[in-house]
Amino acid sequence: MSLDPNRLILTGENPFIRLSDTDGGAITTNASFWRILVSPAGPGHVLYLKSDLTQDRWKIYADNIAMARWLQKTVQGMLNDELADTSIPVTEAVFDKSGDARDFWTERAVSHDEEVTLTWYDIGEPLLIHTEPGPPPARKYGVCTVLIPALGARLTVNGVQAKGRPFPTQREGRPFSTCALAFSESWTETR
């Protein structure tokens, strides 16, 4: 056993949905959901969503705005530079989940006038991924996570389903998908 020498900056979950009309085509829906247990800005939930259902603009739903902004300035902003823009409005929402990662998993965000539902199904074999943070050009942040590919996924806003679908991919030579559950996720930075 060895201790990771890096500083832990967050731990939680980060399932994602990336839908396209064609295999390798432009992403028509990009959703990054976070359930954070530990971060400098506290715990909470946030959904970053860009879709045909949002007129191809980013929308952010959160129950901890400070945490959502901190993620934009750190990990989420590194993963997608469009989301480093902290002028994107944040809509207050409440969150709940249902399902079992063996069969299906559903996350729901409900604001005063919208209900966004994300569902993953046709669940594949989990992968344990571990990367180290590093100086440029490497990623600034490292991660240890359990990625569980989902060959089926859908996203709805007020009952209207986003167009596109998941597509199978490979990750390190193993079957993967453009949509996945990401559990036991911990992000680090160099001390």
Describe this structure in words.
With 191 residues, the protein is mainly β. It has two helices and 15 strands. It has helices spanning 65-73, 75-79, and strands at 7-13, 16-20, 27-38, 44-51, 58-62, 90-92, 94-100, 104-110, 115-123, 127-131, 141-157, 160-161, 168-171, 174-177, 180-189. The strands form two sheets. Strands 1, 2, 3, 4, 5, 6, 7, 8, 9, 10, 11, 12 and 15 form a 13-stranded mixed β-sheet that branches. A hairpin with a 3-residue loop joins strand 7 and strand 8 (104-110). The longest helix is centred in the middle third of the chain and has 9 residues, at 65-73.
- What value does the average pLDDT take? 96
Radius of gyration, rounded?
A: 16 Å
Query: In angstroms, what separates the terminal alpha carbons?
Result: 20 Å
Question: What is the count of β-strands?
Answer: 15
The succession of helices and strands, N to C, reads EEEEEHHEEEEEEEEEE
A few lines on this structure:
With 191 residues, this protein is mainly β. Helices cover 7% and strands 55% of the residues.
